[in-house]
Design brief:
The protein has about 325 residues and is of the alpha+beta class. Helix content is about 45%, strand content about 10%. Strand 5 and strand 6 form a beta hairpin. The protein has a five-stranded mixed beta sheet with strand order 4-8-7-6-5. It has a three-stranded antiparallel beta sheet with strand order 1-2-3. Helix 3 packs antiparallel against helix 11, helix 5 packs antiparallel against helix 6 and helix 5 packs across helix 12. The chain has three domains: about 60 residues, Roll (Flavocytochrome B2, Chain A, domain 1); about 110 residues, no CATH class; about 80 residues, Cytochrome b5-like heme/steroid binding domain (Flavocytochrome B2, Chain A, domain 1, Roll), CATH 3.10.120. It contains 15 helices and eight strands.
Length: about 325
């Protein structure tokens, strides 16, 4: 859940973190903050919208004087949560099909999921997250395969609708969109779908241009920059036959009620945030082998003013205008 303000706009960079060329650490350092100056100093002339999905843009950055209070915001949030729950109950009564989760995050939110399966999935999901943060993409791919093996087991396969591989030669763009990480990278180009996961492992210098289109259709950028991805010259030089996965096909029909239920469940999870079970699962998950932990700092080192606060001394207060003067 990572929001960042850039040049007067607010973006949700939660999805983009894993394919950020500089890794997720830099983005997480600016989570919940205005990173405009830092971004503009490093990426002069770069339009961030060209690298993000349209849904990443959340809205314009407001002015403090016009913002609602925290209390009023939480009141609206609680009212919306209650409204969503009522709408979900109404749709479930109308739904003739069995509503099954079609992704691992939605499956983990399912209250009817087997507790043992949920614990294993949460542990594997945390291991994958840690591997991605450490840029150990081979380990992340290994954990992903372990999750697919677990879900494809005969004891669990009938309890969910999570796709576990695509065997058809016609691949819809919604399926391509699922493969949008460095350890699982599909891209559609001119009606064909390519799996460039292995290519990224051997050509890290091209991570930036390729991951910008991970899980997307890169046809609009075809041959815009000759010799660079995606272009005819690049394809002739780098592309191998085994990278081709299939052709872009039509989207499969989805019941309107099922689609609305999924959207409501996603919105409900965003408003409620992670559950106590999810937080506890992350804390107790098995660590990724080979990942070294940073040395733990003491409270005094992390918070040098802590002693003064605990001693009852008042810290100085600075206005926004005073803070704005220290920007170099």
């Amino acid at each position: 859940n990572c929001w960042v303000a850039l040049n007067g706009k607010v973006y949700d960079l939660s999805e983009f973190m894993d394919r950020h060329p500089g890794g997720p650490t830099t983005i997480l350092a600016w989570a919940g903050k205005d990173a405009s100056k830092f971004f503009n100093d490093i990426h002069k002339g770069v339009k961030i919208d060209a690298y993000l999905r349209p849904e990443a843009f959340l809205g314009d950055l407001g002015v403090d004087e016009n913002l609602m209070s925290d209390e009023f915001w939480h009141t609206l949030r609680e009212a919306r949560i209650a409204e969503i729950r009522q709408e979900v109950d109404r749709l479930l009564n109308q739904c003739t099909e069995t509503h099954k989760a079609d992704s691992i995050p939605r499956l983990l939110q399912d209250k009817n999921i087997d507790p043992l399966l949920k614990t294993k999935l949460q542990r594997l999901e945390t291991q994958k997250r840690a591997a991605l943060d450490a840029e150990d993409f081979a380990k992340a791919a290994e954990v992903k395969r372990a999750m697919e093996d677990l879900l494809s087991h005969e004891d669990h396969a009938h309890k969910h609708g999570v796709p576990l591989g695509f065997t058809s030669s016609d691949i819809p763009l919604s399926e391509v969109a699922r493969h949008n990480k460095p350890h699982d990278c599909w891209i559609a180009i001119c009606g064909e779908v390519y799996d460039l996961t292995d290519f990224l492992q051997h050509h890290p210098e091209q991570r930036n241009s390729i991951l910008a289109w991970a899980g997307r259709d890169a046809t609009p950028m075809w041959d815009k920059i000759p010799g660079r991805f995606p272009s005819k010259q690049w394809m002739e030089f780098f592309m191998r036959p085994e990278f081709k996965t299939g052709k872009v096909g039509p989207e499969p029909p989805v019941d309107a009620i099922i689609r609305e239920l999924r959207e409501l469940h996603d919105e409900l999870h965003r408003l409620q945030g992670p559950s106590k079970e999810e937080i506890e699962a992350v804390k107790t998950a098995v660590k990724v082998p080979g990942k070294t932990d940073a040395p733990t700092l003491s409270e005094e080192s992390r918070f040098p003013k802590l002693a003064e606060i605990s001693a009852g001394k008042d810290l100085p207060f600075f206005s926004r205008a005073e803070v704005a003067q220290h920007n170099t």
